[in-house]
Amino acid sequence: MSEERRLDVLRAIVTEYVHTREPVGSKVIAQTHDLGVSSATIRNDMAVLEEAGLIYQPHTSAGRVPTDKGYRVFVDRLAAFKPMSAPERQAVEKFLSQSTDIDEVVAGTVRLLAQVTRQVAVVEYPTLENQTLRRAELVDLGLGRLLVIVITDAGRVQERTLEPGCELDEVTISDMRARFNEAAESKNSRAMVEPLEAVVEATPANVRPAAEMIRSAIIDLMTPAAESRIMMAGISNLARGAVDFRDIAPVLDALEEQVVLMRLFAELDTDQDLHVSIGTENTHDGLSEASIITGTYRVSDAQEGPAAHLGIIGPTRMDYSRTMSSVRAISSYLSRYLTR
After folding, report:
1. Burial 245-262 (b: 16+ CB within 10 A, else e)
2. What are the tens digits of pLDDT across the range 228-276?
3. What span, in angstroms and rounded, lies between the C-alpha atoms of 72 and 79?
4. Nearest to 119 by CA among 309, 339, 290
5. What is the pLDDT of residues 169-205, one digit of tens each?
6. Contact at 8 Å (CB) between 116 and 327?
7. pTM for this predicted structure
8. Residue 331 vs residues 40, 130, 232, 293: alpha-carbon distances, Å
């Protein structure tokens, strides 16, 4: 019973400190949290929690403040998810229903996440490595130019303008479009190489050079870039909370070095739908006073299919319950939208 009560005291300290930014005393806990014990008993419990390294006293005669270890216990054992409000859910659903491509989805999602959590938001683009071709389009631009468009299963749209050096009539373009799609649909850049080569070989000699250019363009557009891409929003949220950091400059420097965030995402387990790292748990020194909450979203129904991450970065003094819920919910909404 005393162990459960001490956890209740820790929960009260975290809750009050996140809300007020003031060290929390036993009298405040006794008055605002119905624990059924006296403030003297709460003081004894606080002494035990302090000895365990879960809270500390910033200065003599002050109340107590959670440590990184205390926040970890809170997140792992005590935090209850706070569902997003109805207006927040409606805003996410409305935005996603109006988005037309992956760039618009990522840009809007990162802004929404920053607005909902009031923290710095980061969204990683899904890489093309495991994405497959949904459809390829060939559009005659006239004057001997041809536009090649590829649409992936993640909704990414990429295009390239070619100059085949010969006029292609509407029937020929339509026939090429059908045969390239039949050969490459639902395949990634590696799996489509041989089928597309077969299409080129079966093409009449007079238009084979054009077919070869189209084949190369489709494969190039579907080949993943060497580096992943991320988008960030809400830096001003971090600046407004600068009082929660002894020095905010290292955090801003870490965010500016986007490779730090890309490495962080790369190390995450895609089987975890939510991950929280707190303070000194972060490997980068610049983030030792920050907490990072990340979620995983998918761009296909298959569990082993393409996955990417999104998350928030903020001070360790944050509303973990609400922020974790928001990250998890937006990840889920994004997965459902992209797998439709």
Report:
1. beebebbbebbeebebbb
2. 688 999 999 988 878 889 889 999 988 888 778 877 887 776 667 889 9
3. 10
4. 290
5. 899 999 999 999 999 998 888 899 999 999 999 999 8
6. no
7. 0.73
8. 44, 19, 16, 12
